[in-house]
Sequence to fold (113 residues):
Amino acid sequence: MHVVLDNLSAHSTPEIAKWLAHKDRRRWHLHYTPTSSSWVNLIERWFKELTDKRLRRGVFTSVADLIAAITTWAEHWNTNPTPFIWKATAEDIIIKVQRGRQTLNQLNSKTDH
Fold:
């Protein structure tokens, strides 16, 4: 079984390694999304939608107000859910990542990091 996780450090602790080492879980293989690529994780994409369309300009005077806003937005979303559909090809994504890495390497070279 292959499991894709974001690269949160909690996902690679010794406790997780020990849990995975159990004989009943030897078929499990963890794969981590690359650093700085939360866009790959679709739940992160959904939270971005929530943030952009409901939370960013909202004013919440209490935790209860915030919870109500999130709940109402989620209920609205669920009445007519829209799946996230990848439009970029794997090749387009790889090219973009390579371009980003080149830019980062140039910046790091200029600042001696």
Residues 1-40 form one domain. The beta strands are 2-5, 29-32. The chain has a mean pLDDT of 85.
